[in-house]
Automatic annotation (TrEMBL):
Gene Ontology MF terms: 5'-nucleotidase activity
InterPro entries reported in the protein's UniProt record: HAD-like_sf, HAD-SF_hydro_IA, HAD-SF_hydro_IA_YjjG/PynA, HAD_sf, PGP-like_dom2, Pyrimidine_5'-ntase_YjjG
Organism: Flavobacterium akiainvivens
SUPFAM superfamilies tied to this protein: HAD-like
Pfam families, A to Z: Hydrolase (PF00702)
Name of the protein this chain belongs to: Haloacid dehalogenase
Length: 229
């Protein structure tokens, strides 16, 4: 099934093109070893994944600040590990993590191939909830910038997905028509429902095969996008 009449494709970045968990694990391995933090790396990362996701939802919904996000997710992981660390160290690790994270550039399998396939056919854009400087570093270091005509982040738009205004902002700066656009992302709430609420068709990148409504268009691998676009 091909989605007809589409001219603009909007991608989420983290967990969709940019392999956040792999790059995050590498960043933590570096900073924890550098600071001689006495934790089991595998257990730390295992705990961080769901804790970080929970904090991002709170941040996305406007319940916590950026600083609370960056501090709280680390504090909760150390608490779960029953490892006592000072606030000073947590703030230091947080800053080093943010600085180190964009230096890793692993992408999802098929990301470059599908972007090469789509680029001649569509205008390509990014809509991300990530912070401006961090996301810029990821895109630059992963050599993705030349694929995208516009990059919308929550700092620029002044709001976060799934808020309608970030999609409206992305449409405005891209010059794309909503009926001719499609959003691709891994979060059913922020990416898919957010886009649909704005009148933009959406494709759910469901790499983990999570249960979703039958009406939701989805792919389990990025290369499957070739069947839709």
């Amino acid at each position: 099934m091909k989605l007809s009449n589409k001219k603009a494709v909007f991608f989420d970045l983290d967990h969709t093109l940019w392999d956040f968990e792999k790059n995050s694990a590498l960043a933590f391995e570096y900073i924890l070893n550098k600071n001689s933090v006495p934790v089991d790396l595998a257990k730390f990362i295992e705990l961080h994944v769901p804790i970080n996701a929970g904090y991002w939802k709170l941040f996305r919904d406007g319940h916590i600040t950026q600083q609370q996000l960056r501090y709280g997710r680390l504090k909760d992981v150390f608490n779960a590990l029953e490892v006592t660390v000072t606030d000073e160290l947590i703030f230091k690790l947080s800053e080093e993590y943010i600085a180190t994270l964009p230096t890793n550039n692993h992408l999802y399998e098929g990301a470059i191939e599908v972007l090469d396939y789509l680029k001649p056919k569509y205008s390509l854009h990014i809509i991300t909830n990530g912070f401006h400087t961090v996301q810029e570093g990821k895109i630059k270091n992963a050599n993705l910038g030349h694929y995208f005509d516009t990059i919308t982040n929550s700092d620029l738009a002044g709001c976060k997905k799934p808020h309608r205004d970030i999609f409206e902002y992305a449409l405005r700066v891209s010059g794309a028509e909503r009926e001719q656009s499609v959003m691709i992302g891994d979060c059913i709430e922020a990416d898919v429902q957010g886009a649909l609420n704005c009148g933009i068709d959406a494709i759910y990148f469901n790499e983990h095969g999570l249960e979703a409504e039958a009406s939701v268009i989805q792919v389990g691998h990025l290369l499957e996008l070739k069947n839709l676009l």
